[in-house]
Amino acid sequence: MNLYEHTIITRQDISPTQLKQIEEKYSKIVEKHKGDIVKFENWGLMSLSYIIKKNKKGNYIHFKIKADGKTISELEKNEKIDKNLLRYLTVKVKNFDLETDYFKKNDEKEFSNR
């Protein structure tokens, strides 16, 4: 089994329930193909570097996945045809950083350090 970090950017105008459905849909695809989601992170709505399909912002969803290459191929095949997604990216990694929460608000970081 290989380790992958997979990030999805969805349209800015989808509802929270649609966002939850997208998360569940791709989680089920990974599990159906004998993969394992080690960690799921919803990074929230962030500005894009440039306009993509008339969107200035996007909802970021990040998965840390333990799976084989066939699972990732199937995942990306389904993402290509999904109209709610703007972009997706899969990166193969040697190990996961499960400690750091990169998109935590500064206020929350300061509060947790006390």
Average pLDDT works out at 87
CATH names the topology as Alpha-Beta Plaits
- Return the CATH architecture: 2-Layer Sandwich
> Number of helix segments?
3
Structural class: alpha+beta
- Uncertain stretches of 5 or more adjacent residues: none
Any chance you could write out the topology, listing elements then pairs?
Blueprint: E1 2-10, H1 16-32, E2 36-52, E3 55-67, H2 69-80, E4 85-93, H3 106-113
Antiparallel strand pairs: 1-3, 1-4, 2-3
Please, could you describe this protein's structure?
There is one protein chain. The model has no long low-confidence stretch (mean pLDDT 87). The protein has three helices and four strands, in the order βαββαβα. With 114 residues, it is of the alpha+beta class. It starts with a strand and ends with a helix. A hairpin with a 2-residue loop joins β2 and β3. Strands 2-3-1-4 form a four-stranded antiparallel beta sheet, covered by helices on one side. 32% of the residues lie in helices and 42% in strands.
Summarize the structure.
The chain is an alpha+beta fold. The protein is built from three helices and four strands, in the order E-H-E-E-H-E-H. The longest helix has 17 residues, at 16-32.
